[in-house]
Amino acid sequence: MSKTNSTRYLALDVFRGLTLALMIIVNTPGSDHAIYAQLEHAVWNGFTLTDLVFPSFLFVVGSAMSLTMQKFSSMSDREILRKVATRAALIFLCGYLLYWFPFFNADFQLSPIANTRILGVLQRIALCYFFATLIVHYWKDRGALAFSVFALLAYWLIMASFGDYTMQGNAGLRVDSAILGAAHMYHGEGIAFDPEGILGTLPSIVNVIAGYFAGRFVQSNGNRLSGLGCLVIVGLGCVIAALIWNEVFPINKKLWTSSFVLCTVGLDLIILAALVYVIDIVKFRRWTYFFEVFGKNTLFIYLLADILVVILARIHIGSKNLYSWIYTNVFQSWIEPYLASLLFAVCYVLVCWSVAFLMDKKKIYIKL
Q: What are phi and psi of 54, to 5 degrees?
């Protein structure tokens, strides 16, 4: 999908690459105990820069849909369903296998699949892509807009009626516990709680649909300042609506609340407008190649970044794993911990970018 001779495609690749680069930075600090506040998720209610990463991925998936949906006009419903379902299944499987990796324990025995987390980032991307594509294809624009309004209001009603907005008492936790079971959920919060759970997928689909409409709009109006102004106005409107809704349904990434959806969609609309303005209208593109490279092989680099962390954590030098050893001896040894931790993450981004750069030079683009 990366045709860089078109600035519309270039802006999308850059947006995708920016998101991936930020994701790697926030996922790979040198130390979990030395992280700047904006490079961590909000503890519960609230919002940080890090909280924008995942919804931006979904938004970009929707923007890319606006370019690929045109191909569906010449395909039968059966072909479309097969294509969309296959792609979604492969992305879901990649996410699931990523949590199971490296498949074997230190004694070379097969790791128990019974304790493998089922849902996660890629899994939610897969599910949201699948449902958003079918909603847009079969229900068209009006149906997609109606679904978006329904999904945000229905999710609010469910969360308010069948629990509270705490980690231990929310309705999503009850659904995941009943269907997935604690062994297959995320345990990083101290309890079995999955921030990418089943119920939260409903409002997440809206992030993809919003990206789809934004992509369509940019294709028609991206070369006019008035069009980009409309994106900014709508974006600001979404953020203001999110702040108002926050008073009764808090902005919360881990619950993926409806106010969180509006907040992130609004910010993504503003970012997209800014990128299109700089790249298409001002034509300032000297800086774009770095992020464009990431945007061309997003899924592969995403997997590489996570797998490499697991490998580094499995290799030990003395009492430390290689990941910690590099941070301690190469970075923390000469600079204060917070800056050292950030510098480690930036260097890790550059390592991943080097792989993406070589792939681009060899015209290797891995897409599902």
A: -65, -50
Q: What token pair was written down for 190?
A: 């101290």
For the range 217-220, what are the long-range contacts, defined as Cβ-Cβ under 8 Å and sequence gap of 24 or more?
A: 218/8, 218/11, 218/63, 218/272, 218/276, 219/8, 219/66, 219/67
In Å, what is the CA distance from 135 to each residue of 81, 143, 155, 281? 12, 7, 17, 33
Q: Which tokens go with 15?
A: 């947006």
In tens digits, the chain (368 residues) has pLDDT values of 334 434 447 888 899 999 999 999 999 999 999 999 999 999 999 999 999 999 999 999 999 998 888 788 788 888 999 999 999 999 999 999 988 887 666 555 566 677 789 999 999 999 999 999 999 999 999 999 999 999 999 999 999 999 999 999 999 999 999 999 999 999 988 899 999 999 999 999 999 999 999 999 998 887 788 889 999 999 999 999 999 999 999 999 999 999 999 999 999 999 999 999 999 899 999 999 999 999 889 999 999 999 999 999 889 898 889 999 999 999 998 999 999 999 999 999 999 999 999 999 999 998 77
Phi, psi for residue 110 in degrees, rounded to 5: -60, 125
The alpha carbon of residue 127 and the mean position of all alpha carbons in its chain are separated, in whole angstroms, by: 13
299: CB partners within 8 A, 6+ apart: 91, 94, 366, 367, 368
| H-helix or E-strand spanning residue 317 | strand 316-317
**β-bridge partners, 104:** 110
Closest CA to 24 of 296, 267, 301: 301
**Cα 219 to Cα 90: distance, rounded to the nearest angstrom:** 29
Query: Residue 277's Cα: distance from chain center in Å?
Result: 23
Measured in whole angstroms, how far is the alpha carbon of residue 286 from the centre of its chain? 26
- Given a contact cutoff of 8 angstroms between Cβ atoms, the answer to whether 306 and 98 are in contact is yes
What Cα–Cα distance (Å) separates residue 229 from each residue in 16, 208, 263, 276, 368?
22, 21, 18, 11, 34
Of 236, 229, 239, residue with least CA distance to 276: 229
Tell me the pTM: 0.93
